Amino acid sequence: MADTLLDIEPGLARLAPAVGAQLRGLRTPLHERILETVRAAMRAQGRSLTGGQGRGLALGVRTAVDAFVDAVAEPARDLAATRAVFHELGRTEYREGHRVDALRAVLTLGGREIWAFLVAHTTAAGPAPTDLYVVAGALFGYVDALAGAAAEGYLDEQRDAAQDWATTRRRLITLLVQPQPPADAALRAAADAARWPLPRTVAVLSVDGDDAEHLGRTIGGGAIATVIDDVVRIVLPDPDLPGRLDRARQALTGRRAALGPSVALGRARLSYRISGRALALRRDGVLPADPVVGDEHLLTLVLRWEPGLADHLADACLTPLAGLRPAARRALAETLHGWLRRQGQVVAVAEDLHTHPQTVRYRMRRLRDLFGTDLDDPDRRLVLHLALRHRLGEGRDREGAAAR
């Protein structure tokens, strides 16, 4: 908005002082005329001038009229205070849930009424028509400037509200996924602040990117989202409702993403951690497809949850194979892995490995020499199975990553 009315209409500098004095004399009837016009316009919008918003608009009308008639008399008069009033009215319009163009429409109508009033009260003694045209240019430029200040206020409030909502949602999501489950009272308070009805179950999505607000809105269904550790985290309420996960998958088409399991609200951290780890493994090329569904890769997640731990497990458990040549080590490892998977069914193992059953039997004799009673202990067999799955899968992962 311009600093003065003279900035809006330089011709005001040539007006006779009597013009300004005449307008000042019309101040009180102008108030009444414009307030009545604004009341009628508000009623047409289904609103009234009662309550806080109504009092604010009434103040705005008086301020606008007073500032205008005083500025015609003193064109260099600062309009900052008037600009601040309409900037705050724009903020109030947003908070009250109205459209910014509703206030603009009222301002435009008020400007026309001021002009009609001035024309009706022009006497033969003045002001001259040329002076009236200058006043008209100042008036309608002034109305546009006030509308601009209101629009700025509206947009400022909208931006601040968006930032407040983002902060509120982030606080709620952080509370849900913290290491210790939050107290019921704290969780209810955070959910109330975010206007988020507490669901019985949730699932957490982790998505590469920083467009949390857009993704939460696109997925819908009450999803809330924020960015934590440079990853978008989306909390999806009641994920098992029909169609809810399907819509989430559609919204994530073409995005690198991972879905944690559906869990009770108090266990949201588990879903959060699984989705986050699955996303990290997806980035590394270990897990395929987008979005990765964590529940479909739990064994891989367990083996790779703590970096380096599965490697240590494999090194420790497969020490008997360490002294063999690479080809022999690989052949025996694949045979033992197949034997454990097939629960000792030699023929099935041979079919899986595309070799002769006698070859499998020969290799198993060698493996018994190497591992001894470990092959008869259920717990040791489980550990060997995990170690072999990791070690043999590691080679496949490297080959797959190279191919990709």
UniProtKB/TrEMBL annotation:
Top-level division of the source organism's lineage: Bacteria
All copies of domain PucR-like N-terminal, residue ranges: 15-177
Pfam families in the cross-refs: HTH_30, PucR-like_N
Span of domain PucR C-terminal helix-turn-helix: 332-389
Protein name: PucR family transcriptional regulator
Species in which this protein is naturally found: Micromonospora terminaliae
